[in-house]
Amino acid sequence: MLGSVMDQRRGGTGAADLRGFWGRQRCPVERMTLAELLAVFVRHPAVAAYLAVVAASALLVGLLRAPDTGPGLIAAAGAAFLIYPPAEYLLHRFVLHGRFLYRSPHTVTLWKRIHYDHHRDPDDLQVLFGALPTTLPTIALVTLPTGALIAGAAGAAATLGAGALCMLVYEFVHCMQHLPCTPRHRVLRRLKRLHMLHHRHSERGNFGITSSLVDHLAGTYYPRASEVPRSPTAFDLGYTAAERVRYPWLAERSEPGDAGR
Fold first, then answer.
1. Domain for residue 205, yes or no?
2. Which segments of 2-152 are extended strands (E)?
3. d(CA 36, CA 20)
4. In 3D, which of 28, 67, 59, 99 has the Cα closest to residue 243?
5. What sections of 65-131 are H helices per DSSP?
6. Can you give the pLDDT at residue 30?
C-alpha cells in the first residue's frame, strides 16, 4: 500500500544480508526495497521500545481507570495526536536545527548523534531513528501532564501510549521518506518530496515529517526548490569552517572529512 521501488535494478540488500543489519558501520537505505525496510524496521530496538510503552500504557489504563471514564480517556489519547504535529515541528526547528547544542562540549555529542550525522549522510539508516534516551523522555514530558489534566492518572497513561504510537508512525514515515520508493498515497508522496527538499535543497523549511500543517502556519513551507534559495548549510547545519574554529568539539568527535561536509 505504501509504495513500490523506483529502481529495481539496484537490487535489495538480500534477506541473508539483513542479519545483524543494525550493527553495521553504515546502513545505506538507497539499496533497500520497501519489503526489506519493513523487515528491519520491526526488528529495530526503538520499535520494540515504543511498542512496549504502548502495551504498558494500555495495561495501566486498565488498572487505573474508574467507571464511566471512557470519554475522558478517549479525549486524553486524542490529545496526543493533536499536540504531536506542533511538538514535532518545534523540536525539529528550534532544537535539532538550533546551533546552541554544538556550541557546548556537554551537548555536542548528543547533537551529532540525533541530527548532524543524519543531515551529513541522509541515507545512513544507523542514524535515521531517534535516540531512545532523548525520544522517550520527550514523549513523557509532553504527554503525561496533558493526559493527567484531562483524565487523571489513567488519562496520563492513555496519552503516553498514544504518544508512543505517534512516534512509531513518525519513525516509519521518516524511513519511507529516505527509501528510494514512490509511495502510492498522494499525501505520503507529498511528504516525501517536502522532506527531500529539506535535506537536499534548504534545511530552513519543511520541518514537518508527518504533517506540513505547522509549516504552513509558520511560513516555513515550500513545495518546490524554485521557491527558496538553495542553502549552503543543508548538509552541515551551519557547522562551517569558521564555526569549527570557535567550537572545535564536533570536529574532534567526527571522522576526518566529516565535519563541515
1. yes
2. 3-5
3. 13
4. 99
5. 70-90, 108-111, 117-120
6. 63
